[in-house]
Specification:
- Keywords: Phosphoprotein.
- It comes from Aureimonas pseudogalii.
- This is CheY-like chemotaxis protein.
- With about 150 residues, this protein is of the alpha/beta class.
- Helix content is about 30%, strand content about 15%.
- It is built from 6 helices and 6 strands, in the order E-H-E-H-E-H-E-H-E-H-E-H.
- It has a 6-stranded parallel beta sheet, with helices on both faces.
- Strand 4, helix 4 and strand 5 form a beta-alpha-beta unit.
- The termini are far apart.
């Protein structure tokens, strides 16, 4: 064991808001494979809101269209008002881009595990005015540039 190695950061606690059960399973498996934990899952903004925010989590992965309609942005805004950062996971990058101010990242489906890992890292230190984009909604070059890094 190398005592000089920096301590490994604690796993993130992630909330997942998605209405497709197959995508829920797939994304949650990726989150766990990346060393984090999914602490709750909702298929609608109404269900999230009804939970009263009783779950403790570090950030949320949110789809745009949910069981109760195009309410993913409303869910992100509701969490944003409570100081909880979000990442959009969607097949509708253009729509998500309209709500980019509510998210730290926009990743398009199918989700790339490496890009998901980089986006989840943003949850550790949210920076106002900075968000990631996997290049689908804009013509961002490298992932580093898309993540707001030099």
């Amino acid at each position: 064991m190398n005592d000089d190695a920096p301590p490994r950061p604690a796993p993130l606690r992630i909330l997942h808001v998605e209405d497709n059960p197959l995508i829920v399973f797939h994304v949650e498996q990726m989150v766990e494979d990346l060393g984090h934990a999914v602490v709750g899952s909702f298929d609608s903004f109404a269900a999230l809101r009804a939970s009263g925010g009783e779950l403790a989590f570090d950030g949320a992965l949110i789809d745009i269209d949910l069981v109760d309609g195009r309410t993913g942005p409303a869910a992100a805004e509701w969490l944003h008002e409570r100081g909880i950062p979000s990442i959009f996971l969607t097949g509708q990058a253009e729509v998500a881009a309209d709500y980019g101010h509510l998210s730290l990242a926009i990743l398009t489906k199918p989700i790339d595990m490496g890009k998901l890992g980089e986006a989840l890292d943003l949850l550790r230190e949210p920076r106002p005015g900075k968000r990631a984009n996997d290049g689908a909604a804009t013509a961002a070059g490298s992932m580093g540039a898309a993540l707001g890094r030099p």
